[in-house]
Write a structure and sequence with these properties.
alpha+beta, Peptide Deformylase, five-stranded antiparallel β-sheet, two-stranded antiparallel ribbon
Length: 163
């Protein structure tokens, strides 16, 4: 299908709680193809549907060369104590700050055939699962920053060339 343009901070779709995928049709198949092609670009760990302008519960991932997608993902389990984890976001270009993330996470959802998908793990995968499900709930990583860091990050957004 196509590599889609990433929506940037300030776009209302990024603050939208996404609707579940109710029916697998050609539109959803095209969405998944676009999500996968868009996440395949170098340096991308995940792309959520709202980041390409679609308010549906779906995301793609690209972790250590393992590329895939999940429909209607639900963060079903996290383990450990949240810890500051260096993080950025395609929708907030150029910013990198420590966000509070659990060291292990599990997401459950489905694929295009309606079959169950379970993604679980630690490290970058855990971080991506939390980050992408946040997008589907209308949250950006900025909301996971401590108050002082969030203040700094928002100043960086206001001063950025893209804002």
């Amino acid at each position: 299908m196509a590599v889609r343009e990433i929506r940037i901070f300030g776009d209302p779709v990024l603050r939208t709680v996404c609707a579940p995928v109710e029916e697998i049709d050609d539109g959803v198949r095209a969405l998944v193809a676009d999500l996968v092609e868009t996440v395949e670009l170098p340096g991308r760990a995940g792309v959520a549907a709202p980041q390409i302008g679609v308010a549906l519960r779906a995301f793609s991932y690209n972790i250590d060369g393992d590329i895939g997608y999940v429909l209607n993902p639900v963060l079903t389990e996290v383990r450990g104590e949240p810890q500051p984890t260096g993080e950025g976001c395609l929708s907030v270009p150029g910013l990198w700050h420590d966000a509070q993330r659990y060291p292990w996470a599990r997401v459950e959802g489905t694929d295009l055939d309606g079959e169950p998908v379970i993604l679980e793990g630690a490290g970058l995968l855990a971080q991506a699962l939390q980050h992408e499900t946040d997008h589907l709930d209308g949250k950006l990583f900025l909301s996971r920053l401590d108050p002082e860091t969030r203040k700094t990050a928002m100043r960086e957004v206001r001063e950025s060339a893209w804002f």
